[in-house]
Design goal:
The chain has 8 helices and 12 strands. It has 266 residues and is an alpha+beta fold. The protein has a 3-stranded antiparallel sheet with strand order 3-7-6. The relative contact order is 0.17.
């Protein structure tokens, strides 16, 4: 595998323990919530997508060990991982992408094939023709993030919040903000209607603050800034929207980087 970027000797961390694979796709995919996915299943899903960019609709073959490494899957029993792959696929095949504009409506599934060869320890995946367009049509706007930043997060809600924020990151300043209505926020993160604002604070925003701003496993925090402003409706006391500001952590003592040719245009 060709690594996107290698930071030599950074953060007292063995480079073999850190992935630099990149996930990149058209912003339209951010409208598809990963409903009912567990954190492990999310990691497998994004690991697969990190290797499907620029591959068209060709069948992609993954070794079990490659997916385990990418997704940081820490249980090595073949049966356990086989079950995790099957449960991930059972949810992946239910994902669909909808588009509607001026009387035109289209709905399509994301993948046309998913096969698991348990004996040879391989996974075969093939994107649908229309989903390939969503993966690789980035001219109209795209989301990009390091796979490692998703897999190191523990909470499924925080993983989903992170990929939404990455749509609004300014490449130059490494910062941005997401202004979103409460209703849309609930939909995109698949938050149950039963969750009150106190539940959203406890289960999502407080966890996000802790996970985004804390060091973990010997590596720097993902963000150096993460704040949530709650905007009330003009009438009444109800929270109408959130304005979430963030800034990626920047090493005050950066070390030289090695850029590999395959990822120069990432």
């Amino acid at each position: 595998m060709i690594l996107a970027t290698i930071k030599q000797g950074a953060n007292n961390m063995n480079e073999s323990e850190r992935n630099y694979d990149v996930v990149r796709y058209n912003n339209g995919l951010n409208t598809v919530p990963l409903r009912k996915f567990t954190p492990v299943e999310m990691d497998i899903f994004w690991s697969v997508l990190s290797k499907m960019k620029r591959k068209g609709t060709e069948e992609i073959i993954f070794e079990f060990e490659d997916v385990e490494r990418l997704a940081k899957y820490d249980r090595r029993e073949k049966d356990s991982f086989h079950d995790a792959l099957k449960s991930t696929w059972s949810k992946m095949k239910e994902l669909d992408y909808s588009y509607e504009d001026d009387g035109y409506y289209e709905d399509f599934v994301l993948f046309q094939r998913f096969a698991i060869d348990k004996e040879k320890e391989k996974v075969i995946i093939q994107a649908s023709e229309r989903f390939e367009f969503v993966l690789n049509n980035i001219e109209l706007g795209f989301t990009r993030f390091e796979l490692d930043n998703v897999t190191i997060l523990d909470s499924g809600y925080v993983k989903e919040l992170y990929r939404q924020l990455m749509q609004y990151k300014d490449i130059d300043t490494k910062s941005g903000y997401w202004a979103v209505t409460v209703d849309e926020f609930r939909r995109l993160l698949a938050i149950p209607d039963s969750y009150r604002m106190s539940d959203i604070d406890k289960r999502i925003f407080n966890k996000a603050k802790d996970e985004f701003l804390s060091k973990k496993d010997g590596r720097d925090p993902i963000f150096e800034k993460f704040t949530v402003e709650k905007i009330k409706a003009k009438k009444g006391n109800k929270i109408q929207r959130f304005v979430i500001n963030f800034k990626e952590y920047q090493d005050p003592n950066p070390v030289p980087m090695i850029n590999w040719l395959e990822e120069l245009n990432e």
